[in-house]
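In this supplementary section we document a worked example of the pipeline. Step one takes a protein sequence of length 615 as its only input; no multiple sequence alignment statistics are reported here. Step two produces a three-dimensional model, which step three serialises into structure tokens for compact storage. The input and output of this example are shown verbatim.
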Amino acid sequence: MGFYFSAFEKRTPPAPLRHRKGIECVWQILSVTALVCGANYIRWRWMESLNYDALWYSVPLLLAETCAYVGTIFFTINLWKLQDYKRQQPPATINQCLEPSAQHGDDRPISVDLFIATYSEDVELVRLSIIDANKVTVPNAISYKIYVLDDGRRAEMRQVAEEEGVNYITRDQNTGFKAGNLRNGMELTDGDFIIICDADTRVFPSILCDTLGYFRDPDVAWVQTPQWFYDIPAGKPLPKKLQQRFGKGGYYLGKAVESCIGPITIGHDPFANDPQMFYDIILRRRNWANAAFCCGAASIHRREAVMQTALRRYHHDIEAEIDKYTDDIEHEEFKTSLRGAMLRQVANETELMPYKFHVSEDIYTSLMLHGDHERRWRSVMHPEVESKMLSPQDLLSWMIQRFKYAAGSVDILFHDRLFKRGNLNLSVPQKLMYGSTFISYMACIWNTIFLIAPMIYLFTGIPPLSVYSTPFYLHFIPFFLLSEVAFMFGTWGISAWDGKASYLGLFSMNLRAIDTVLRGEKIKFHVTPKERQQGNFLGLVKPQLAIVGVTLLALIAGGLQLYWGRIEDPSGFLINIFWCSLNIAAMIPMIRAALWQPEPSEEEMAVPEEISNVN
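The serialised model returned by step three reads:
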């Protein structure tokens, strides 16, 4: 059976970025200098630059700048340094993974279970994941078993599992969705370690040999490996793309352009799916703070850690529920009697959840383990790619996935009892790292102000500052330039533009996620489609189209304002033109993604009809 991604099977993942101490040192010096300049700029903005004739405009923009500066502090801390864990040989027996006081008198080989969680994905797609799971190199003759966890209860999925010689587990209902599926799998298996895979996660033979060694540290609860999407469209060189449209003339025009500014690829990674920035830069640099959180697929978990923390959380939830009804009772004897009477009922009604029934169960479980009061569980972000998987291949699938990430994280921040005082025992560095994650989803609020602010100036001629003058340039330009150069060194080896564009371009979706959570609306557990959805999706980017359209009108209006002499300071006009240009450039990738269609050469293998009909 052919799939669209069959043409990409021979692709190999990129190597992890090499640690360059000199580059890291330059980054640290520049970032601190940039933050000092930024603090001076924010001080000047509050104390000397407010436009008191337009506080309705000046103050919101300054609040947005202040929040963005705080976000920059968090992000700088996140990227501060790289400190990978020491690699060790995989253990052979369970005692090599335990503290001396917990070791068994009768030692035994360790056991590993690999879970492939599936619901409605094509069974032949899951078969590919099973085939690759069967190719895993098993070190030291340990026990290794593969389980298909089928929440779709499909006879054909059971048949595929039997044909490939692996175990099949299902259940009568879908309580808890993926988290409930994993919990059911844990209840019916007994492996010391569990590899979590989605239906499209195809592990490499090296995954056990390369990752089990970390568990020689008895405090390591899980190891996350980078997710690598091997089906990202490669795009076409500019000359070939122009040749398709305009013949030989287009080809030579493309060559001429490339001779001036370097190679240009059109159509590469239209949805900014390449996760290397996230895994190789952001998450990997949280190792030093013990704050690399789990991302689900391609992660390896210590069963003891997951179950032990779940039991503690279970006990805590029971106590908290009983406290709600007994805290106000003053008579101690009656209070004690009532608590004892309530215990059995509340215990029966409370779920024991190894993986939280939540749309963002991965980060929730990470917080529970990192914040355990009785055990300092550790996490590892392993640098090498140990699996391959499929990326969203259309804007609808991409936005379903990103909305789940955003809404789930915001829901944890605002609604979950985890963040009530005393519920989590996180270190200061861990709080800062998780804070960086949550603040990134809140940034859509001030990003919206940044998108609107230059339009107001160009339409009305009213400046947000008291004046665009020499003091502004002396405070702003050093901060801006130093920040750009610093983060160039901080993300050395990876282009950061796609991340910046997504950060700004996703403002409307993240605003919708915040609105959904604050209104108390239930976040739906949509399965991210594993196949290309058909059509164009301009309806999904109406906010981005509106920003581009209104910004272009603002540029025209600003030009007329300048021509008529209503804008007294041409330098302010130039700054806002530059600002508007960056805003438009950040919106374009999402608009282009809505119109993107795969090149015919990428469809070497036809997509089966039964897959294309899946909704």
